[in-house]
């Protein structure tokens, strides 16, 4: 007997074969999570410590400091709501705060460009085929690891003291050096030099950016007769502008938050004559010397807004001079 396949299978999903396949195929259990849901749950489980840190170490303290900035709080007594009084006092009744802002702005405007220029020059030298690149890269990066430490700040105080190493070297050639860290005309300059000395981190980033520039562009420029300076300003600098911008933003944010060097060199006072009174140092003084936590919280939020505004301004202006690969 000849069996017709179409007759056996049926002309629709209700045929015998279809019914048999339906009984043999396991049906998904709606109460059991799918494989994708299980993988997502595992991913969130691994991210749980980060979320906990974000909540407990960042978001909750931010919210608490924002609340305290509107209060009169001295740790020893419960906070009392005073509204915008802390902010009014900052800009109308506190000349030292305006002084700290001026000192910090001068420090940022002078030290950040000089540090970036110095780091870029050394990165260009190291990228020119210098032997022992790994050794020099490690040696030049070392100050960045130590530049913000207390030990280096203490060493800096010894170098620039009235009887320090620098004046000793100047005395050898018959020059009487000033008391660098106790003279208001020079004290801030010593901290600027300290910041420039910590050039290793931006130098490494510049060096990585230089390695990404195609060598074919330089070869074509040489064929066209372009010299060293022409290749630098027409190829290297334009293609390196994203890296320059990245380093600029990071260095600017770090300079606004500088604290350790000024604290150690001035003995925590911002002296002499408030010439090294950085904004963060004055914030520390109001919080942990005067125990004026409400006022210090308001200062912290003002600093946050200043850094955010300067970062936003950099992004706005960066559209004019930063060139990316698709442009």
Describe this structure in words.
The protein has 327 residues and is mainly α. It folds into 2 domains: 30-68; 85-321, MetI-like (MetI-like fold), CATH 1.10.3720. The chain is 69% helix and 1% strand. It contains 15 helices and 2 strands. The protein has helices spanning 5-9, 16-24, 35-68, 85-92, 95-126, 133-146, 150-159, 165-172, 187-197, 200-211, 215-223, 228-256, 260-265, 279-288, 293-321; strands spanning 71-72, 80-81. A two-stranded antiparallel sheet has the order 1-2. The longest helix is centred in the first third of the chain and has 34 residues, at 35-68.
Structure summarized in a few sentences:
With 327 residues, the protein is mainly alpha-helical. The protein is built from 15 helices and two strands.
